[in-house]
Here is the input.
Amino acid sequence: MTAENKPTIPDRLGRVSDAVANKVLTPSVVNGAPLPQATLVSNSTAPVDDSPRWNTEEVRTLVEEAMERFAGERPTASDAWLAPRLHYTLRLTRSEATDSGLWNFIALRVAPDFVRWRWGQEKNGRIVVRQAARFSGRWDIQCFSRLWWAAELFRDGEDYRPVSAACGNQDVLNTALRLDMNHHRPSAQALVELLDKGIVRTGRDVNGLVKAAGAAGSTLVYEAIAPDEPRDYEALQQWIEAIESDPVWNPNTLPQGPVDGSVPFRSVQQLTKWFEKLFETAPVRGIEMEDTTETESVSP
Here is the structure.
């Protein structure tokens, strides 16, 4: 077992700049060689304040639990479990969550072994990740950033259940997550509603709906059809500051997010009906082939 399999974890979260991350993520590292920890340590910066939310202990415990809990399954299965708990543990404002340096730090210094476990494939005795962007990359691709933002965009106020539903479908994470429509909260909840109803089931269904919804309008159109209500930023700040008094995440029950306002029920219902109609005529790749195959299989 290499040193990276048992990384020496810093006590506090910090930043690793994109420039440093790009320097250390050489082709050999992406193909399984150990990360140059001396370079990372010497080029890391400390958090901006002394808040306990920058402690690494719970983040590290969380990823270890995920690797153990899903050891016998495909690593993709961990996303729906990990996303809400990561969001609950890393209590950030959206502005703070746009800092790629924080996500670089977590991937490169706190949990590089998790990145390899989640995204790697074994080749010639090494775990090959293939994409450096899983360590340091765009917000919807980077290993930890994508999960935090999925939880932020798909939660319904304090309710993380929609997050688990959304993250249980890889096409939501891979395709729908980065679309502007999901920055409109009723749109995100309407997509989850269609998943829950079984109207949208497969990855191709999700892709078909997302393309149809994107062609049909912008977030301005969605807001006109299904208005949202302002989030309670004071409640969000209180939740962030309550990190010392709140219980740590539970492996078997979902935590409670910030009580900063639920999505208007009527708006979600309006968009769900609209998206359902769009999906009826959405071009879903491969559906004709599936229908033909099914017909042929029951023909006498």
Summary: DSSP finds 17 helices and two strands in the chain.
